[in-house]
Every structure is written in structure tokens, then in C-alpha cells.
């Protein structure tokens, strides 16, 4: 009974509903603002009543749920809802069908359609929302999903091809114009994004008056989105740009780079704007096309050229493009290496040519300066580029280190040149400006880091250091200490301890003098440096030399004071080092001579007599012939002494007499008379002699190196007990930083250790070693 | 069951045995090993050899020097003549190996006593009969070749050194290896440039054998960069392929 009444009420509702739906539709089509009429609310409550009364009167039981008759009120209401939706959709689709391939019109229309449909669905929902819970159980989808389903079936399914090509056309125009055009394309893309979703919500943004389907479970839409939109779109994009790229094959590299960067920027913008879900995939595709496939070609044609013409910013642009694929940076790095290798090799070649032209020692300084400064300059340039244009990329830094290290060590005399350069820099440093000093130290250290043969460098450095330290003017103890500290941080060696001792010696000597306030003998002022035995590169200590009486007291006094403080230590005087000043009174004039200690000792013999034979001088001083020549001939050349033979003859005749020039007179009262090569007899540069010293240094170096490698090998064997040849070799080369032992050298040491019984080979596997205790 | 003696105990036993009769370390060790380091058994064994070796002693005296202490080069020369073998024939090295003789160029009485006994012969003419078998063994059995090769290092070596002169090593290589390993023909042509390689260490010597066996003719298998081959053999490789030096 009540069923009939309810059905009648339903029919009324149906009429009203359809009526209002049409009104709503017309309003939307006309784009008119509308207000929700009061009748909507009545409809809403009427629907609620209908459905609840029905369920009260005809309760569902187990049987009727399987009833496929659809007689229930709820079913009727749901169908009404669906009908409203479908009517609307059908109308939309009719309009859509009529559009031809006019992309702009289609775009506008579809955008409006979508908006209108969402609005319509939203308000429809307001009417029917009481049904929401029951639709879920009866139809398996809530109202919003039903709305989405309706448009999917009636509009999207048939029209998706057209929709897709519209999107493509619109974007194509954007691409051709190289700017982002119509933003409405976003709503078309949204259609693709939400299709196939089973659980959605429809949201209404009041301020923007926008409606949106919110997907609750994106996984439902993935396949549809990919198949209908993403894959096709990316394919089209790739096709498009492949053509574009091949058209630009003959474009200059930098123009290509700039165009590529612009394209990428545009595409990413477009993606973010309209289809941000595909952003990563698009980015990867673009990287594939523009970076992975182009990187090598672009690098090999441009990097070296740009470096040579200082096209720094263009290098930056190139890097910006290529660094999008981290792996591709290696192409730039390779070119970088090649370029700087050749740059440094050119410098090396110049220096080598220059050195062949010149003959002897003096101009080594010029060579050293040129070499080091030029290399530092190139390094500076390279480093700058990496920092400012390439974001300190680790691959580039690696390339930088490889190039410079490899090339710099190709110069045979690199360790010597660096030591000489260091000497020059340190001597010219007056210690005033800390910043400048730091810069100098860093220059030296940078070059040091490049060297393989650091032990050779330190050998030379030690000699120069000794010269600097023993000369008061050039002492700069803090600077020397800082430099040594830097070296210490970089490598391990006993020699560094020696060098530090040398500096400490001087420091302590000075302190000792001031602490003790050594009594100043008026006739002979003495200043002493105490050198630790074994640390200084001093040759033989000539302790057989006999100092003159005037000196002896002061020397003894010093010895005495020292022994009081340091009982048991042995002191030896190195008369072959040191310098001083002689005051010479003759003809009522006073002169001051800057001379060496040996010169003092030999000249002071003339206090006792006006003339002496060479033999006599030798007997009294025990200074050997060559040193005597070097000492006294300057006096002879300056006419202070006279001799029977020519000025520059040797002292071979022991009976030759040397006498004071009693009428000596010179305008200059201060005369520098340190031994000078121009004031020496022409000695046959026995090539044996100089190279004797060099030979000794070389032998010392080799012995040191053998020791370093031996101890590293034994250390490794001790800890590993058993190790493969390859690993032993690698470990050894890795741990030794003081020089670069080559494979042959290490192998020889291994053979030596086998012979000495430290290591043995395995019986079965020849590549395996065992440690023998 | 006596437990195995340690190094020091072994040395003492060897010395003890050497008081019984004059024999070298190698022979003493060999005999003691055979008798499980039982000094008494070893001594007995030696005395047995002496008792039954009268004919061997006579044979020995025929080659020995005037004082009858050892056989020197002349005697060895005679010995080889009677065996109808060349002085340079590798089989004489094999025989020395069996004798466990200590130094090249000298045979002691015990060398003969012990060696002939092991070979179960009493005279040179009897030895001549087994010569063919010995030659075959040496040529065909790689284990024997290896043992003889290794033995020859100490055999050639002087007492005060740990290595042997290169020319002696080359002699040994020529005698013992060239027939089996053709690569050695090239190897012998290889002259070293450096002055300090006029001696060959034990390790290098042993590794030349390994080189022949593992590499031989097929030099492509030689790992110059990462292999643990001695530098002497590396030198040979570079001699064959100078452009591999990089």
C-alpha cells in the first residue's frame, strides 16, 4: 500500500529533479551565476524520507538482496541520479563531436565542458548525498565515482583520441613559439589523470570557483594514465625533438647548448604546469636525448677550444647542460685533462729548450722561476674554472690533479726546480705581510704536492735550508717552521724531523747566546750556531784547522759555558763554515772586510809577520790548498796582499812568498771579499768532482728508498701474514707517499726480502707470499 | 712411536751421524728420514752399506786422487768416459742427485757408497747397464726433472754465498731444460743489461722452472704487470716484447 504512495512521491521527485537538472545545465552552459534554489533542499530531504520510509516498510532481508529486480526505492533513486548525469554527458558529447580539428576551439570547449560537468556533479551530489552510503553497498561505487564513471563512459572513452591530439597540437604550438601558451590545456590533461579512478571525491574551491576530482588511490589511475596519455606523449615528444636535433646538427656547439637548455626549461615548465605526474619521466627522456646522446660529441669539439680562448662562461653553460647526467661529466673531464696536460708539457718543453741554450749554473734560477710560476698560473686558471663554472665537481677535480701531477713529473729536474723556487721565494720574504707570506708558502706547497719524488725535493731543500739558516740575513725561522709543518701533513719521512731539528738548532743557538750573555771580547766578537750532528748537510768537519790566538780565547770561553750547561757533549768547530768581519788598520786608515771564517784564520796570520810562505801558512793553520787559494786570492786581487806569481795562479809552489801590501790604499772602506769563482785559479772542472757529490746524494737517496720500501713490505707482511703478490704491491704503492716506487723497484725489494729470509713463496701458488718470523 | 723431532733436535742428530762416518748434511737427512729419525737404525744402515760396499770402495779408489780421499775433476772425467757419456750429459747430474753429492766437481767415498747402493750396482760397468733407464726417467718424468733441477742449485752453489753465478745457472738451464722446454733456447740468448744481475738467487732459479712449466712457449699467458715473476724473468719477457714496456 504505502509502496504505491511512495512510488507516487518518487515520480514527483523524479520530475522535479529532472527539471532542476535541466535548469542547472542551461545555466552552466550559459555561464551564468546561479543560486541554489530552495527547492533543492526540499528535494534533498524528500529523497532522504523516501529512502528511509521505504526501507522501514520493506526491510531488506537475505532473500531480497539477491533480488535482481531493482524494485527498491534506493535503486530507483540511484538510477535517477545516473539518468541526470547521463543526460548531461550526452549533451556535452554532442557538442564535442561537432568540433573539428580546430584545436583552440576544442581546447576551450573541453575545458568548459569539464568544468561544467564537475560543477553539475557537485550540485547533483548535494541533492542526493544521503544515498552515498547505500550506493557503495548496492552498486559498489559512491556517488562521485559514479559521476566520474558517467563521463568516462559517455565522453572520455569515445573522445580520448581527439583529446590527446588536441593536447599535442596545443603543446606543439608552445614548442614552436618557445613559450608556454594556453594554460587551459591543464584541464584536458587532468581528464587523463583522473580517469579510471574508483575512489574519488569532488571538491569545490569557493574562491577560485573551481571543482576538482581528488583521487584517493592513485594506483587505480596509473595504467590508464600511462596507456592513454603518458607513453604516447613521451613518444611524440621524443620523435619531435629527434627531428629538431638532427636539423641542428651543424649548429655550433654553444648555440646547441643554449638551445638545448632553453628547450629543457620550457618542457619542464610545461610539465610542471599541466602534467606534473610525468615530470621525472620527461626529464629523463630529455636528458637521454640532449645529454647522454650529445655529451661526448659536444665535449670533444668544444672544451679544449673554449679553454684555449678563455671562453669561461661558455664552459659553464656546457657544464650546466652536461651535468644533468652525472655520468656524462666524465667527457668534459677527459677533455680537461688532455688540454692541461698539453699546456704543462708545452711549458716543460720551453724550459728544456731554454736550459739547453744556457751553459752553467746561475741561470737555473731563472728557469726555476719560469717553470714554477707558469705552472702555478695555469693551475690557478684551471682551478678557477672548476670552482666558478663547474661547481667543484669531483670528477673535474680528479682530472685536474691527474693532469698536473702527470705532466709536472715529466720534468726530470722538477724536485730541484721546486726547491730552488722555494729558496728564492723564502729569501725574498721579509716577513712583514702575513698574507703575502701565506700565498708564497701555498705556492711552494702546491708544487710540492704535485711531486712524486718528494724525497729528492727534500734533499735539495735541506741544502738550501742550511744555507739560509746559517746566514743571519736570511733567517726566517717561523716561515721555515710553517713550511715544514705543511710538508709534514702531507707525507711521512725521517728527513722532515732532521729539517725541523735544523731550525730548532738555530732557534736554540740564538736563545743560548742571549740567555748566557756571552762575554763580548772586545777584540774578537763571536756568534755561534750550535748544529746537531747528523741533521745538517755539512760535509767533512775540518777540525784539524788551527785558529789564531785571538780567536782561541773566545772559542774556549764558549766551550766552557756550553759544557757547564750540557755536560758530556762533544763540540767540534766547523771552521769551513761561517763568516765575519775583519777590521784592518793600515796607513792610518781603517778598513772593514766581509770574509769567511777560513779567510779570517788565514789572514790573521799576517798579524805576526809581514810575509809568509805558503808552506808556513799551511803549517800554522792546516787549511788545505784549495781552501787557502779560495781564501787568500781575493785579498791578492784586491791588492791587500801581494804574491810573486800571477794573481790567479794556484798555490802549488809551497815556497812562494805572500806578503802584505804596506802601501795598501782603497777609497772604499768596506770591502766584500767572500770567495768568488772569478777570484779563483782556473781549476780543471774535473767532471768527476761535482758529480762525485751528486753521486753520493743519489746513492743516499736510493738507500733511503730501499729502506722505505723494505719497511713497508715487512710491515704489511707482519700484519697480513699471508698475502697475494698483487695486494702486496698495491698496498706498498698506496702507503708510500715520499716517492713513487715503480713495480720493478718493489719487486726487487721483495726478491731481496725473500733472499734475506723475511718472506717465502707458497709451495703451490707462486703468487702468494708468507711471512717468516 | 717417537714424535717428530724439531729443527734443533734434527741438527743434533745429523751431527751425531756425521761422527759415525763422513757424510754430508743432505745424505744424513735423507737416511734419518728413511729411518724415522732413529739414530740407531740410521747408524746400522750406514754400517751395513759399508760392510757390503767393498767392491764399491775399490771402484772409488780407481778414480780417487793420490790420497784416496775424494774424486776430483780428473776422476770424474774418467768416470764419465767409462760410462760412455759426455761430461755435459744431464744424466751425470741425475746420478749426482741420487748420490746426494754436496759439491759439483767432487765425489766423496760416501757419495759412491750410498749412491751405488741405492742404484743396486757395485761397479761402473753395472752402472752403465742401468744408464738407459736413468736417462729415460730423467727425460720422461717431470717430478724427477724438477727434483734434479732444484737440487742442482745447491750442488752448484758455493758455501759462502746464497746465490749462484749467472753463467753457471745458464749452464744448468742449457743442460737440464732446453731439451724439454724449447723456450729456454730463447732464454739463453737473453743477456741482462744491468751490472748487478750477474748472480741468480734461489728464488729466481726455482721460478725459471715454474716459468717453463706454466708459461713455456705461450708467452701470451705471462702476466707482466701483476704477476709475481722475478724481475730477471720480467727482463726476458721484455727482451722478447720490447714494446710492452709502455
Automatic annotation (TrEMBL), chain A:
Residues folding into a coiled coil are 470-516
What Gene Ontology molecular-function terms does this entry list? ubiquitin protein ligase binding
Q: Which family does it belong to?
A: Belongs to the cullin family.
This protein's name: Cullin family profile domain-containing protein
Record's keyword annotation contains Coiled coil: yes
InterPro entries according to UniProt: Cullin (IPR045093), Cullin-like_AB (IPR059120), Cullin_homology (IPR016158), Cullin_N (IPR001373), Cullin_neddylation_domain (IPR019559)
Q: Where is the Cullin family profile domain?
A: 413-636
Q: Which UniProt keywords apply?
A: Coiled coil
Q: Which GO terms describe its biological process?
A: ubiquitin-dependent protein catabolic process
User: PANTHER family, from UniProt?
Assistant: CULLIN
TrEMBL record, chain B:
Q: Which InterPro entries match?
A: DCN-prot, PONY_dom
Q: Give any single GO term for biological process.
A: protein neddylation
DCUN1 domain location: 51-241
**Gene Ontology CC, one term:** ubiquitin ligase complex
Q: Which domain of life is it from?
A: Eukaryota
Q: Which GO terms describe its molecular function?
A: cullin family protein binding; ubiquitin conjugating enzyme binding; ubiquitin-like protein binding
Job of this protein:
Neddylation of cullins play an essential role in the regulation of SCF-type complexes activity.
Kindly give the PANTHER family that the UniProt entry links to this protein. Answer: DCN1-LIKE PROTEIN 3, RP42 RELATED
Protein name from the UniProt record: Defective in cullin neddylation protein
State the species of origin. Paramecium pentaurelia
Amino acid at each position: 500500500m504505502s509502496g504505491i504512495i511512495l512510488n507516487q512521491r518518487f515520480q514527483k521527485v523524479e520530475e522535479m529533479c529532472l527539471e532542476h537538472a535541466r535548469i542547472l545545465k542551461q545555466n552552466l552552459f550559459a555561464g551564468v551565476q546561479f543560486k541554489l534554489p530552495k527547492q533543492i533542499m526540499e528535494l534533498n530531504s524528500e529523497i532522504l524520507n523516501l529512502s528511509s520510509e521505504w526501507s522501514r516498510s520493506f526491510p531488506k532481508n537475505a532473500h531480497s538482496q539477491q533480488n535482481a529486480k531493482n524494485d527498491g526505492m534506493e535503486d530507483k533513486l540511484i538510477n535517477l541520479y545516473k539518468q541526470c548525469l547521463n543526460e548531461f554527458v550526452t549533451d556535452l558529447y554532442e557538442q564535442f563531436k561537432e568540433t573539428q580539428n580546430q584545436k583552440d576551439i576544442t581546447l576551450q570547449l573541453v575545458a568548459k565542458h569539464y568544468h561544467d560537468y564537475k560543477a553539475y556533479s557537485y550540485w547533483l551530489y548535494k541533492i542526493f548525498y544521503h544515498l552515498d552510503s547505500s550506493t557503495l553497498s548496492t552498486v559498489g561505487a559512491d556517488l562521485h565515482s559514479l559521476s566520474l564513471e558517467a563521463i568516462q563512459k559517455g565522453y572520455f572513452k569515445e573522445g580520448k583520441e581527439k583529446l590527446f591530439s588536441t593536447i599535442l597540437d596545443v603543446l606543439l604550438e608552445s614548442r614552436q613559439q618557445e613559450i608556454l601558451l594556453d594554460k587551459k590545456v591543464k584541464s584536458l590533461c587532468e581528464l587523463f589523470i583522473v580517469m579510471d579512478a574508483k575512489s574519488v571525491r569532488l571538491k569545490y574551491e569557493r574562491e577560485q570557483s573551481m571543482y576538482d576530482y581528488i583521487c584517493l588511490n592513485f594506483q587505480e589511475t596509473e595504467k590508464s594514465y600511462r596507456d592513454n596519455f603518458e607513453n604516447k606523449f613521451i613518444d611524440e615528444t621524443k620523435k619531435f625533438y629527434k627531428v629538431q636535433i638532427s636539423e641542428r646538427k651543424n649548429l655550433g656547439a654553444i648555440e646547441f647548448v643554449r638551445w638545448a637548455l632553453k628547450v629543457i626549461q620550457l618542457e619542464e615548465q610545461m610539465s610542471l604546469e599541466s602534467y606534473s605526474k610525468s615530470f621525472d619521466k620527461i626529464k629523463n627522456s630529455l636528458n637521454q636525448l640532449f645529454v647522454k646522446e650529445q655529451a661526448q660529441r659536444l665535449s670533444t669539439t668544444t672544451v679544449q677550444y673554449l679553454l684555449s680562448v678563455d671562453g669561461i662562461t661558455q664552459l659553464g653553460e656546457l657544464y650546466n647542460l652536461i651535468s644533468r647526467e652525472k655520468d656524462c661529466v666524465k667527457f668534459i673531464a677527459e677533455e680537461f685533462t688532455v688540454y692541461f696536460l698539453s699546456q704543462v708539457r708545452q711549458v716543460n718543453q720551453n724550459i728544456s729548450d731554454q736550459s739547453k741554450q744556457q751553459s752553467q749554473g746561475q741561470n737555473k734560477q731563472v728557469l726555476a722561476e719560469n717553470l714554477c710560476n707558469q705552472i702555478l698560473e695555469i693551475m690557478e686558471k684551471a682551478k678557477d674554472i672548476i670552482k666558478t663554472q663547474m661547481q667543484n665537481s669531483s670528477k673535474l677535480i680528479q682530472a685536474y690533479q691527474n693532469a698536473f701531477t702527470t705532466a709536472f713529473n715529466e720534468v726530470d729536474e722538477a724536485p730541484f726546480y721546486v726547491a730552488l723556487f722555494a729558496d728564492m721565494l723564502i729569501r725574498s720574504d721579509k716577513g712583514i705581510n702575513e698574507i703575502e707570506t701565506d700565498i708564497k708558502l701555498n705556492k711552494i706547497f702546491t708544487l710540492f704536492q704535485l711531486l712524486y719524488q718528494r724525497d729528492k725535493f727534500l734533499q735539495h731543500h735541506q741544502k738550501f735550508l742550511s744555507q739560509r739558516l746559517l746566514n743571519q740575513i736570511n733567517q726566517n725561522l717561523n716561515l721555515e717552521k710553517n713550511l715544514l709543518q705543511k710538508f709534514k701533513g702531507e707525507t711521512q719521512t725521517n728527513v722532515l724531523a732532521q729539517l725541523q731539528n735544523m731550525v730548532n738548532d738555530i732557534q736554540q743557538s740564538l736563545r743560548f747566546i742571549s740567555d748566557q750573555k756571552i762575554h763580548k771580547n772586545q777584540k774578537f766578537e763571536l756568534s755561534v750556531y750550535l748544529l746537531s750532528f747528523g741533521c745538517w748537510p755539512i760535509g767533512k768537519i775540518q777540525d784539524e784547522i788551527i785558529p789564531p790566538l785571538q780567536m782561541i780565547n773566545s772559542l774556549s770561553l764558549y766551550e766552557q759555558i756550553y759544557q757547564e750547561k750540557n755536560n758530556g757533549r762533544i763540540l767540534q768547530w766547523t771552521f769551513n763554515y761561517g763568516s765575519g768581519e775583519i777590521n784592518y788598520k793600515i796607513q792610518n786608515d781603517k778598513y772593514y772586510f766581509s770574509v769567511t771564517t777560513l779567510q779570517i784564520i788565514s789572514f790573521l796570520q799576517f798579524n805576526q809577520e809581514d810575509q809568509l810562505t805558503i808552506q808556513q801558512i799551511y803549517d800554522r793553520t792546516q787549511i788545505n790548498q784549495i781552501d787557502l787559494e779560495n781564501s787568500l786570492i781575493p785579498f791578492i786581487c784586491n791588492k791587500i796582499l801581494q804574491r810573486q806569481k800571477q794573481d790567479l795562479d794556484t798555490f802549488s809552489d809551497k815556497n812562494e812568498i805572500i806578503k802584505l801590501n804596506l802601501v795598501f790604499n782603497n777609497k772604499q772602506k768596506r770591502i766584500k771579499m767572500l770567495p768568488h769563482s772569478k777570484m779563483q785559479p782556473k781549476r780543471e772542472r774535473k767532471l768527476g768532482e761535482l758529480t762525485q757529490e751528486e753521486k753520493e746524494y743519489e746513492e743516499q737517496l736510493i738507500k733511503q728508498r730501499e729502506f722505505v720500501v723494505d719497511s713497508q713490505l715487512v710491515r704489511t707482511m707482519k700484519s697480513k701474514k699471508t698475502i697475494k703478490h698483487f695486494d702486496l704491491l698495491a698496498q706498498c704503492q698506496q702507503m708510500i707517499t715520499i716517492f713513487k716506487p715503480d713495480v720493478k723497484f718493489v719487486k726487487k725489494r721483495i726478491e731481496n726480502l725473500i733472499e734475506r729470509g723475511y718472506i717465502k713463496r707458497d709451495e703451490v701458488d707462486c703468487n702468494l707470499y708468507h711471512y717468516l718470523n | 712411536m717417537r714424535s717428530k723431532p724439531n729443527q734443533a733436535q734434527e741438527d743434533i742428530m745429523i751431527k751425531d751421524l756425521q761422527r759415525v762416518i763422513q757424510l754430508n748434511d743432505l745424505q744424513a737427512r735423507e737416511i734419518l728420514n728413511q729411518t724415522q729419525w732413529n739414530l740407531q737404525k740410521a747408524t746400522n744402515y750406514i754400517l751395513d752399506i759399508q760392510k757390503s760396499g767393498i767392491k764399491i770402495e775399490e771402484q772409488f779408489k780407481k778414480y780417487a786422487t793420490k790420497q784416496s780421499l775424494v774424486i776430483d775433476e780428473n776422476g770424474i772425467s774418467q768416470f764419465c768416459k767409462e760410462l760412455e757419456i759426455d761430461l755435459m750429459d744431464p744424466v751425470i747430474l741425475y746420478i749426482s742427485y741420487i748420490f746426494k753429492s754436496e759439491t759439483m766437481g767432487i765425489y766423496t767415498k760416501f757419495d759412491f757408497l750410498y749412491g751405488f747402493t741405492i742404484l743396486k750396482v757395485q761397479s761402473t760397468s753395472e752402472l752403465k747397464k742401468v744408464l738407459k733407464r736413468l736417462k729415460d726417467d730423467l727425460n720422461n718424468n717431470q717430478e724427477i726433472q724438477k727434483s734434479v733441477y732444484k737440487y742442482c742449485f745447491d750442488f752448484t752453489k758455493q758455501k759462502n754465498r746464497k746465490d749462484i753465478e749467472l753463467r753457471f745457472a745458464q749452464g744448468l738451464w742449457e743442460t737440464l731444460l732446453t731439451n724439454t722446454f724449447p723456450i729456454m733456447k730463447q732464454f739463453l740468448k737473453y743477456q741482462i743489461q744491468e751490472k748487478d744481475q750477474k748472480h741468480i738467487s734461489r728464488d729466481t732459479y726455482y721460478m725459471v722452472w715454474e716459468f717453463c712449466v706454466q708459461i713455456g712457449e705461450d708467452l701470451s699467458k705471462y702476466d707482466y704487470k701483476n704477476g709475481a715473476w722475478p724481475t730477471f724473468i720480467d727482463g726476458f719477457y721484455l727482451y722478447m716484447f720490447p714494446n710492452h714496456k709502455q
